[in-house]
């Protein structure tokens, strides 16, 4: 018992909210995964880019038409009366990275989806979480249910930090997506139980 | 009026917020929960229609991202309107569960059990 539980139950009796990010390159299956595990159809909001913290200079070189909005989709899993888990698919394109910082705040961790036909499209996401010490697991989305490479081969190809979990999955299947999420939570539980708080990954910058 | 001109679409929401583009409180996150105060306080200026729509939607707790989707407005616009409503005491706000580098075991176990039931 932490003892904080009953005291924290606010006047509004709103459930606690936690979130997990689903990241990876464009078209890798993020929205599909959110939809597979969410109890609601993936919801979507459109953010005007200029409102999201971009300075005018940052818009240089970005085509205006494409730069006007960024879509963010999310799903919900009700864990109980008092706890709801939200899943947020991060915007895929690199130019939307400034949003990731906001998204990452308060996240339990992340799933980085990888398409083995073009793994490089997920490098940036891996790098982002690694640098910030945000716990993550790799979900290899086997398009057409095919998994030509073993987790070890993928770990090598992606030059993943020691101990990074690599799971073969199918973003279209709820059970498969659940296993990936459970693997992430189990990793967090192990870390929390050790009490060291060290993210799987490189040692903290000296 | 359904032309591909996205500028119109972007301008309209901000007329709802009196042209402000920045909330004056930064404590609204995507998963901050919002609930209408019941009963609503007497007096004060009558809420604008969009504010009333928010109040109706948050008779039960609802998070910011969901409000944005339900009203088809950007989170940034929703946040500004929520600031207005908070200032006049029409809503209460519950921040997300804080997550430290070592989230507490009880919380994680609960999430895991919930996923098992999925
Ligand atoms: N065949 C197959 N198609 C998939 C799979 N996962 C996603 N897709 C499709 O790939 C496309 C991109 O997926 P989406 O979830 O939108 O990618 P996102 O850009 O990462 O959100 C969509 O047309 C999906 O239906 C998969 O495992 N197998
Ligand atoms: Mg998507």
UniProtKB/TrEMBL annotation, chain A:
Keywords of this protein's UniProt record, alphabetized? ATP-binding, GTP-binding, Hydrolase, Nucleotide-binding
Name of the protein: ATP-binding protein
- Which lineage do the record's taxonomy fields give for this organism? Bacteria, Bacillati, Actinomycetota, Actinomycetes, Kitasatosporales
- Look up the signal peptide feature and give its range: none
Family designation:
Belongs to the GPN-loop GTPase family.
Named from the GO MF annotations, one term is:
GTP binding
Instruction: Note the SUPFAM superfamilies from the entry.
Output: P-loop containing nucleoside triphosphate hydrolases
UniProtKB/TrEMBL annotation, chain B:
Judging by the UniProt lineage, the source's domain of life is: Bacteria
Enumerate the residue ranges of region (Disordered). 1-25
Q: What is this protein called?
A: DUF742 domain-containing protein
């Amino acid at each position: 018992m932490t003892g904080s539980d009953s005291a924290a139950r606010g006047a509004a009796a709103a459930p606690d909210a936690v979130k997990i990010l689903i990241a990876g390159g464009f078209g890798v299956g993020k929205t599909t995964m959110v939809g597979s595990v969410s109890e609601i159809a993936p919801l979507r909001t459109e953010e005007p880019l200029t409102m999201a913290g971009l300075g005018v200079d940052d818009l240089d070189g970005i085509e205006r038409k494409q730069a006007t909005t960024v879509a963010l989709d999310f799903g919900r899993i009700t864990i109980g009366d008092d706890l709801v888990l939200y899943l947020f698919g991060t915007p895929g394109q690199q130019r939307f990275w400034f949003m990731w910082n906001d998204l990452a705040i308060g996240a339990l961790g992340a799933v980085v989806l990888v398409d083995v036909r073009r793994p490089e499209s997920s490098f940036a996401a891996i790098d982002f979480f690694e640098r910030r010490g945000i716990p993550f697991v790799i979900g290899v989305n086997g398009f057409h249910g095919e998994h030509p490479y073993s987790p070890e081969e993928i770990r090598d190809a992606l030059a993943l930090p020691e101990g990074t979990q690599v799971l073969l999955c199918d973003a279209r299947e709820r059970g498969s997506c659940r296993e990936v999420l459970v693997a992430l939570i189990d990793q967090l539980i192990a870390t929390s139980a050790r009490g060291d708080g060290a993210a799987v990954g490189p040692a903290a910058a000296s | 009026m359904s032309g591909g001109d996205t500028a119109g679409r972007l301008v309209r929401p901000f007329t709802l917020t009196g042209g402000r583009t920045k909330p004056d409180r930064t404590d609204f996150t995507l998963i901050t929960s919002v609930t209408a105060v019941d009963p609503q306080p007497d007096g004060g200026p009558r809420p604008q229609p969009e504010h009333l729509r928010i109040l109706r939607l948050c008779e039960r707790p609802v998070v910011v991202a969901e409000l944005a989707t339900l009203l088809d407005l950007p989170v940034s616009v929703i946040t500004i309107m929520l600031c207005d409503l908070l200032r006049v005491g029409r809503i209460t706000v519950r921040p997300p569960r804080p997550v430290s580098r070592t989230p507490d075991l009880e919380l994680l176990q609960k999430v895991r059990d919930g996923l098992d039931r999925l």
